[in-house]
Amino acid sequence: MSNYKLIKDINPNIYRGYDIRAIYGVDLNEDIAYTIGLSYGEYILNEGYNKCVIGHDNRDSSEPIYKALVEGIISAGDIEVKLIGLVTTPMYYFAQLHLNNGKGIMPGIMITASHNPKEYNGLKISFNDFGNACGQMIQDFRIFTEKNTARLLEENNIEIIGRTVECDIKEDYLALVKSSIKLGDKKVKVVVDTANGTASIIAKEMYNMFDNIELIPLYMESDSRFPHHHPDPSVEKNNEDLKKAVIENKADLGIGIDGDGDRVGVIDENGNMIYIDFFAIIIWRDIMNKVSNKNALFDVKCSKSLMDEIIKLGGNPVCYRTGNSYMKAKMREGNFAFGNELSGHVFFNDKWPNIDDGLYAGLRLIEILSKTDKPLSHLLDGVTRYYSTPEIIIKSTDDAKFDVIEKVKRYCISQEYKVNDIDGVRVEFDNGWALVRASNTGPNITARFEGKTEEDMNNIKNEFMSVLNDFIS
C-alpha cells in the first residue's frame, strides 16, 4: 500500500507556460507529486513510451518530491524509470539523450524550480521526443491528470507494476564536455559563482579538467537556502559579489550560474556585466565563418545590436519567442548552430548537442579568451550600441496578464504600429522598439524598451508604461 494519496483538486495555476511550478507545502507536496506521477506514467504509455528518466536539483524539497513522483510513475504501468538522482538540469538533458541509445530524446521529468526563490519547486516535463513540454502541451496534461485522477479514485486498484534502474551519468557528461573544449595557450583566470545552487555539485570538477583554467570558486557550497544571493545571474544586482571577486582577483572574467545550472551570466575583467545578447555577439564573431548554417536564433527580448552584428557578419537574424522549450525545439527544427535568450539560456549546436548549460557556456567563452591577447571587454569593440532598459517586471495576475497583452496589441494596431506578436507584442520603430509580454513563469508582465538615443528610449518607455498602467489599473 502506498504512503501517498491521490489529490483530486490540484490548483490549475501550477501548470505554467514551461513547467509545473509552485510553493512547496502550499500547492505542491508529495501527494501532489505522486498524483502527477501516476498521470504522467499513463500519459507516456499512451504516447507509446515505456521508459523515462527522472532527476532532481539540490533543493531540500526535491528529494521527497522525487520519491513520491517515482512511486506514482511505476504505479501507472509497466514502465522502467531511470533514476539519475541529484543532477543539474543540463545533466538531465544529457541523460535523456545518452540513456536512449541514439533514439532521440527520452521522456522524463526534472524536479527543479530553476532560479525561483527557495520556497518554490517544480517539474520540467518531457512527454516525447519534443523535449520539455510547453504551452498547450502542459494544459492538455493538466486536463488528462484531472480526468485520470478521478478515474483512479473511483477504481481504487493501484499497484506497483513498473521498476526503477539507478544510473550514474556524471563521468560520461564530463567526458562530453572535455571532448568539446579545445583551449589555446593562454591561461585564463575565472571566478565562477554557482550561487550555492545545483551546479555546485559539478563546477569545480568540470573546470579543473582544464590545465589552462585558473578557477576561483565563489559560493560553491551546495545550499538550497541560497544564503548569499538570489540564484538568477541575468539580474545585475545578483552579481555584485561576483563583480567584486573579479576585480579583487584580477580575473579575466566572471561566470554566474543559476539555481539548476542551465543559465549563465557574464562579467568582464572590469567588473561590468555583459548581457547575453552581447555574449551572443562574441560567440557569433567566433563561429560565423566556421558553420554552414548562418541563420542566427535569438529571442524577442534581445537588443538590435545583436541583429545588426549578425547581418554585418554575413548571417541571417531569426527572432523567436522566449522560452527554453520553444527555443530548444526551434534549434532542432532549423538546425541552428547557436541560439540565445536574454534570460541566460544559450544553445550551442555546433560541436555540442543543443544542451543549454551555463557552465559549458562559460567554457566556450574561456576557449575564445585562451586564443587571443584581447581582454573580454575588447571582444565587443565596434558593436553598434543602443540605449536599452533592463527587463522590467510588472505585477499582474495569471488570470489578467494575457488580457492586458491583448489590449496592448489592439492599442498598437490602432496606432498602425509595426507589430510582431510571436511572443506578446514587440513594436518596431525607426528609432527603437518596445516589448510587452506575459511571463510564462509567474503572475507578471515583462517589458523592455530600446532606442537609438536615450531620449528615444525614454519616449518609447513612457508611452508604453502609461498604456500598461491604464490597462492594469
Summary?
The chain has 13 helices and 21 strands. With 473 residues, it is an alpha/beta fold. The strands form four sheets. Strands 1-5-4-2-3-6 form a six-stranded mixed β-sheet, sandwiched between helices. Strands 16, 17, 18, 19, 20 and 21 form a six-stranded antiparallel β-sheet that branches.
Main sheet attributes: strand count, strand direction, barrel closure: 6 strands, mixed
CATH A-level architecture of the largest domain: 3-Layer(aba) Sandwich
Q: What is the residue-mean pLDDT, rounded to a whole number?
A: 96
Q: Identify the CATH class of the largest domain.
A: Alpha Beta
Trace the largest sheet across and list its strands: 1-5-4-2-3-6
Uncertain stretches: none
Number of strands: 21
Structural class: alpha/beta
Number of H/I helices: 13
Instruction: Fill in the CATH topology of the largest domain.
Output: Alpha-D-Glucose-1,6-Bisphosphate, Chain A, domain 3
CATH superfamily of the largest domain: Alpha-D-Glucose-1,6-Bisphosphate, subunit A, domain 3
Q: What's the arrangement of secondary structure elements?
A:
Elements: E1 20-23, H1 30-46, E2 51-56, H2 62-74, E3 80-86, H3 89-98, E4 108-111, E5 120-126, H4 136-155, E6 163-166, H5 170-180, E7 188-193, H6 203-207, E8 213-218, H7 240-248, E9 253-257, E10 264-267, E11 273-274, H8 276-287, E12 295-299, H9 304-312, E13 316-320, H10 324-334, E14 338-340, E15 346-348, H11 358-369, E16 387-388, E17 392-395, H12 401-414, E18 418-420, E19 425-429, E20 432-438, E21 444-451, H13 454-472
Parallel strand pairs: 2-3, 2-4, 3-6, 7-8, 7-9, 12-13, 12-14
Antiparallel strand pairs: 1-5, 4-5, 9-10, 10-11, 14-15, 16-21, 17-21, 18-19, 19-20, 20-21
Helix pairs in contact: 1-2, 1-4, 8-9, 12-13
